[in-house]
Amino acid sequence: MDVSIIGGTGQEGFGLALRLAKAGNHVTIGSRSQEKGATAAEDVRRLVGGDAKVDGTTNQEAAAAEVVIVTVPFEGQAEIYRSIKDQVHAGAVVVDCTSPLATAVGGRAWHVVRPWHGSAAEQAKAILDPSVRIVGAFHTIPGESLRELERDLESDVLVCGTDKEAKAVAGGLIDQIPNLRWVDAGDLTQARITETLTALMISINRTYKIRDAAIRITGRASWGVPG
Amino acid sequence: MDVSIIGGTGQEGFGLALRLAKAGNHVTIGSRSQEKGATAAEDVRRLVGGDAKVDGTTNQEAAAAEVVIVTVPFEGQAEIYRSIKDQVHAGAVVVDCTSPLATAVGGRAWHVVRPWHGSAAEQAKAILDPSVRIVGAFHTIPGESLRELERDLESDVLVCGTDKEAKAVAGGLIDQIPNLRWVDAGDLTQARITETLTALMISINRTYKIRDAAIRITGRASWGVPG
Q1: Which end of chain B has fewer CB within 10 Å, C or N?
Q2: Residue A197: its chain B contacts at CB < 8 A?
Q3: pLDDT level of residue B227 (50, 70, 90 thresholds)
Q4: CB atoms within 10 A of CB A123
Q5: Contact A213 B205 (CB under 8 A)
Q6: Do A204 and B186 touch (CB under 8 A)?
Q7: How far apart are CA A93 and CA A69, in angstroms?
Q8: Which residues contact B120 (CB under 8 A, 6 or more apart)?
């Protein structure tokens, strides 16, 4: 599958690029500068090895993929979306990974601020064309662990969104990453809850002096597409 | 240990009464009416069997214990706290289990409202004497599963609070319930996040047509008291 990662040089974006390239997808890393994107792509190719299909370019060029994953800090999120909105295809699946951590306003990483639209994902929706299908995901996956390719991730990805098919597309990518599962958390407004879990994981990390607290949902043997 | 449960005739309160009585604690069930409290206590004694030590009384009388667990719907929470505030001992540990579900205002159980103080637990703190040590807990534990005594719970309890000793007291009770673990989620303000997880679990239950979605925290072999 052709997947782009906007903000793909950051920790979480780079980790996702590694994992999705390793799974055999064609990954395009977007960055503010074409050069940085190209360098990150080279790094991914080297780390994944084999014939990993990875390109690097600007966020704007990367935004023209059928699946676009956006991993940027909350303080830059609205600006990034405005800068790519004309490139995102009608009907594209956009996976927003933003958590509105209070660090965006000089606060603590274990606190959150409340976006005007309810969640960062809904802020993205307000900026993009209404035909674009937004999904919120990956808020409880530790970025550092994503980067350690030889390490299995012990976590579930809570996926929320209003378009079921778009959730299944995002879920299909998640299923390609060893040991990750995805759980349909409901419609896009549930991002108001799932996005805050990043701060909760950071609070738990801080309390126990660890780095990769994450969550598993119990109550069912398997998750993925409901029904 | 002497434990009271305010709102102990509701599903979650009754389930906790069962579990904590079975573990050998002296449990006092508080209710709006003394009669209802006494009937619920009789039910717990019958279900637990043996020499279960369970009494039933009014919420006001029950509030004079060293550990007071409060399981009431959000719409009645402030009123209940105002009605027991003079009975709660200085320095007592109060475990608030309230989730600010939107059902309190005629909305949906998978949505939340935002309490003025940030969380229901902080609202409780604002009403009680400042010496009382508030802990938030049990928001991700399905009430129905608590009532099924023969069933092990597959879940972690996220505990937040500002007083570490109070968290350890609440954690000690949680550890008595088979298969439950407790995770220190940080200070009391983290209840702003943990309380919303009830709505998230309800959203997942609704999506998958199940009844007892819950969570486990990963990243560490054991939890409980940090360090």
Answers
A1: C
A2: 193
A3: confident
A4: 22
A5: no
A6: yes
A7: 8
A8: B74, B77, B96, B98, B99, B100, B136, B191, B195
